[in-house]
Amino acid sequence: MKLLTFDPHKNKKVLCGELIGDTLFRNVEPKHFMRVLQGYGIQEVAFQEALKRGVEKIVLKETHTEQQWEATVNTWLTHSKIADYGHGKQRFLSLKFMKTHKTPEPDHEKEIKRAQQGSLYD
After folding, report:
1. Which residues contact 12 (CB under 8 A, 6 or more apart)?
2. Which residue among 20, 79, 111, 122 sits deepest, i.e. has the most Cβ atoms within 10 Å of its Cβ?
3. What is the DSSP string of 52-97?
4. Cα dihedral sign for 102, 103, 106, 109?
């Protein structure tokens, strides 16, 4: 289920992420990075809606690096900071409180790379 929230700066609804099971997945771009806290944020209204829907984990995927950052909702509740920098209240969490890993490549992309390297039948 797509999670939308209103952004007062843009004066429209924006996609905050997608709820799948007990996880909120959110794509983030470099412009979303909060340098002061060394982390990323989520609209507070969307965060509260995710809580109501039983979310237990939040996974952020950097679109420019394919790096994923994840943390439990409890970690977000314990260590995040709430601020409003013109886009509505947001809850920010430093990367130091998140686990990280690269997004695994789909099998078809792995096969293409092997073929390009001449090792399709290895």
Report:
1. 6
2. 79
3. HTT--EEEEEETTT-EEEEEEHHHHHHH-EEEESSSSEEEEEEGGG
4. negative
Backbone angles phi, psi at 23, to 5 degrees: -125, 135
DSSP string, 2-43: EEEEEETTTTEEEEEEEEETTEEEEEE-GGG-BTTTTEEEEE
Largest Cα span, the chain: 55
**Which amino acid type is present at position 108?**
H
**Alpha carbon distance 95, 88 (integer Å):** 21
Tens digit of each residue's pLDDT (9 = 90 or more) over 11-20: 888 888 999 9
Nearby residues of 22 by Cβ (< 8 Å), 6 or more positions away: 54, 55, 56, 57
| Selection from 38, 63, 58, 35 nearest residue 48 by Cα | 58
Q: What is the pLDDT of residues 67-98, one digit of tens each?
A: 999 999 999 999 999 999 888 899 999 999 99
pTM for the whole thing?
Answer: 0.77
